[in-house]
Structures are given as C-alpha cells and as structure tokens.
Amino acid sequence: MRHRLAPAITVYIMSDTILDVVNLKKYFYHSTGLFSSLKKEKSVIPAVDDVSFYLKEKETLGLVGESGCGKTTVGKLILRLIEPTDGKIVFNGMDMRNLRKSELRKVRSQMQMIFQDLDAALNPRMKVKDILKEAITVYEDLDYYTVNKRITELMNQVNLKKSKLGNYPDELSGGEKRRVGIARVLAVKPRLIIADEPTSALDVSIQAQVINLLRDLQEELGLSYLFISHDLRLVELISDKVAVMYMGRIVEMGLSDRIAHKPMHPYTNVLWSSLTEGGEKTISRGLSWQVFDFGQSVTGCRFHPRCEVFKARGNPKECTDPQNEPKLTETGTSHYVACHFPLL
Ligand SMILES: Nc1ncnc2c1ncn2[C@@H]1O[C@H](COP(=O)(O)OP(=O)(O)OP(=O)(O)O)[C@@H](O)[C@H]1O
Ligand code: SF4
Ligand SMILES: [Mg+2]
C-alpha cells in the first residue's frame, strides 16, 4: 500500500502498521483582550499543525519537545478525546473519524492512554480493587470469578502485591499509583498505549522500574507505544523511532539512535547536546529553553528566531519566507527532516 506521510513524502507502509496519522491539525481558539468576547476577537493556537507519522505493531515511537509544543494534544486527538480540526487517524486500518459511536467504543478499548497527571487518572474515592474491577467490566459483562482472576493477573503483571487491593490511591506511593494506572489501562487489553510522561513526578530509581515494566509488558503482550516525554535519555532508551516536535510540528523523525547521535535538524541537535555529562537531563528545565508562546507570530521556519544555523548562515531569506515553511522530507532511510539547511 502507498503511504503519504506528508504532502511531499511518499513511502511504502508495511502491513503491520497499527497507527497512521496523516496531516493532523488541532487549532484552539482563545478570546483575546478584556472586551474580546463582545468584539468576538479570537487568537489561534495551532497546537498540532500538520503532523504525520506512523507506528508499527510492537514498536515504540518517542515523541519529544518542549512544554506546550503539542505532545499531549496529539495523544488526545488519536484517542478522539478531542476532535481534530483536520487530518486523518487510521488505527488498524480503520479511519477513526468515520467510525460510528458503537464502532468507536470497540476501537477505544484497543487504544489506551496513560495520563500525564498521576492523580487525575485514579478516582480517589475508589479502592484499587474497585478501580480495576470498573476497568475490567467497562466493555465486558463478566462473572465474579473471572473478574477476580483478571484482577490477580493484572496485579501480577504490574508487580503489585495483592495486599494493595484494599488501598485508596492516597495510600499509595507515586510508583505504586503509576503501576495501578498501568494495570487499569491493561485491563481492557489494548494493542496501542499512549504513555504521556509516564515517569513524571517519580524518583529516578522508580522511573527505571516503570520503564522496565513497560518494556516487559511490550514484550509479553505485543504492545505498541507512543511514548511522550521531556526526558531525552528515557526516550532514547525505550524508543525504536523518535519524532521531535516544535511548536505544533514534527521537525525531525527517525531511528532513535540516529536522532540522538546524528541529528539533522538544528533544534534536535541542540536538544541532545544539552545532555552533557552530569548536566541538565530534560529540555524544559534548561535555562535557554522555554514554554512556547504561540501568540508570537513567526514567518517561515518557526525555529528561526532560535536557530544557530540561521544566524551562522547570515539570516538566509529561505528561512523567513512565509510561503516556504520547511516540510518534513525524507533524507535517508526512514529519516525525515524539516529544514532548508539540514546538518550533515
Ligand atoms: N483545551 C485547550 N484549550 C485551549 N488551548 C489548549 C487546550 N489544550 C492545550 N492547549 C494549548 O495547546 C498547546 C499545546 O498543549 P499540549 O498540552 O499539547 O502541550 P505539551 O507538549 O503536552 O506540553 P507539556 O510538555 O507541558 O505537557 C499549549 O499552548 C496549550 O496551552
Ligand atoms: S529552516 Fe533555517 S531557521 Fe529553520 S531550522 Fe533550518 S536552518 Fe534553522
Ligand atoms: Mg503534555
């Protein structure tokens, strides 16, 4: 089957593709100014702006980028928790936007999200046992014996002691809460998991345990992951492929090793160079990195105000041409970059 990754790109897609995202867009509209609601003034946030990628079965795609670049929005769009402005999401050969409600419900059980916020995902008024029971029976009507058997199986899968079943989320450590969250997601037997910062707010040693758990589960259950994170080291460790997002767009995508050690986009290069020995490990905390301000209008390449290559080349007009925003283009085997002057 021919596969269009972006308007300018055509690649062959393998039959084992589980998720295909094509030209996905999500624009949020905000009222601006004190009397804006009266004057109907709106500013637009192109949180996801023409994003395309695909994911194969049992593969992990890491999605990285600074705070506010649109990562969580991509995840929510895939699950149709929010409606896209435009674009296509094909899961297991089915166009998610054309599904009827009953079909969507069925497909939803196959794709699940581990949410960024550890606490928001678990109902504080429910014991672990009830949280899991609710998840197990959400799509299936099962008898008492089967539910209990499945609860035991899930607790084993995430390495949690059965004694924790009687606890409320507040009575658990951060790592245990995350494990319950993962068990809850596994309860519906998904094929694709969107893991949104699954290790945030956890100690480094617990982070490693969660990552190892996710890898073991992938092996055991044949799961595919979209792994969203600020932490470049973790992304490099767990991902087969990595996509780098900047202000709503993917600017580079390729095999994890290539992205980390031979990046072609100046932004990717700066991201991974910030991983100095004993230095800053995440993007967002670095001094020179900031939360995006979609309110500032940038013409041409969105990265040009911060791009060293742009400066070094004497501000070439290609980079600021509003008609010529760089598009994701294949530059090597499974390697894509959106830059007029990629690093070689
Ligand atoms: N429901 C919403 N309404 C309006 N704007 C939104 C909404 N959700 C997200 N945004 C905006 O869209 C942009 C992308 O947000 P998103 O949460 O996807 O970023 P992110 O990359 O996940 O950031 P972080 O790393 O901090 O989690 C931000 O500017 C955010 O303020
Ligand atoms: S297109 Fe120009 S400004 Fe944008 S990343 Fe490439 S060199 Fe930098
Ligand atoms: Mg997020």
Number of strands: 14
CATH architecture of the domain at 2-32 and 43-110 and 190-264, please?
A: 3-Layer(aba) Sandwich
Q: What does the average pLDDT come to? A: 87
Question: What is the succession of H and E elements?
Answer: EEEHEEHEEHEHHHEHEHEEHHHEE
Radius of gyration: 21 Å
Q: End-to-end span in angstroms?
A: 31 Å
Bound ligands, named by name, code or SMILES: adenosine-5'-triphosphate, iron/sulfur cluster, magnesium ion
CATH topology group of the domain at 2-32 and 43-110 and 190-264: Rossmann fold
Gross morphology: globular
**CATH class of the domain at 2-32 and 43-110 and 190-264, anyone?**
Alpha Beta
Task: Write out the CATH superfamily name of the domain at 2-32 and 43-110 and 190-264.
Answer: P-loop containing nucleotide triphosphate hydrolases
Tell me about the largest β-sheet.
Answer: 8 strands, mixed
Q: Work out the strand percent.
A: 25-35%
Strand order within the widest beta sheet: 8-9-10-5-11-12-14-13
- SS element count, helices: 11
Specify the structural class. Answer: alpha/beta
Helix-residue proportion: 25-40%
Low-confidence stretches: 1-13, 277-289
